[in-house]
Amino acid sequence: TLISGTTTDVAIKRTLQKDVYNSLYLPFDLSKEMLSQWKDIEGNPAFDTMPVVYVYEADTVVLVDEKKELQLLFHELADDEVIKAGVPFLIQPKEDVAEKIYIESVYVTKGEALEVADGETTWVGEWQPENVSVSEEYHALLVAGGDTLLPLTETTQVLALNAYAKVPASVVYDYAVIKLPSEVVPEEPQPTIVWHPYPIGYEVSNLD
């Protein structure tokens, strides 16, 4: 049993699928350097190739092919960035992970589940398996591996160390997707008009 406020060795059991988005929710801070210290049961690095970690930024609704697309925007974890304990994030490993992962000497701050929100969408994590019900107040969206999030249509169990998105029912959209900065198409820049009193390259002189 993890005790909040202690430094200890931790073993986590969380199946991760390669090359797809997996939601993850941990009771300790995480950085790229910390991730490189994760081990398998034999003490070898847990990953042959470092997985990519994505941090939630905000949401936006855009019109795509006459459909309202709810975009949940993420950025890649920076070298100097730390994800705080209890903050949900996405991880995309390069190989499947089915066995326990071991992490030495981490400071555990397990407590109340934290919610991450910027815009209308809130990301919620679960320490333990939790049944999430359909609500009239919000839509629950599950990370299903691909870019498109799976809307909850019936009571579903969210497994431990997973997360899901909550979108208020007042937000109007047709479907929701995960977007990275490189995938976001910027709006067309508006031309800047500079008015000159006379055509450039011409002189104005008195005709007399």
Your description of this structure?
The chain is mainly beta and 208 residues long. The protein has 1 helix and 14 strands. It has one helix at residues 32-35; strands at 6-12, 22-24, 52-64, 67-76, 89-92, 101-108, 115-117, 122-126, 130-132, 138-142, 150-151, 156-158, 162-168, 175-179. The strands form 4 sheets. The chain has a 5-stranded mixed beta sheet, with no helix packed on it. The longest helix has 4 residues, at 32-35.
Instruction: Give the termini distance in whole angstroms.
Output: 97 Å
Number of strands: 14
What composes the largest sheet? 5 strands, mixed
Strand order of the largest sheet: 2-5-3-4-14
* SSE-based structural type: mainly beta
As a whole number of angstroms, the C-alpha radius of gyration is 23 Å
Low-confidence stretches are 186-208
Q: Average pLDDT across residues?
A: 83
Shape: globular
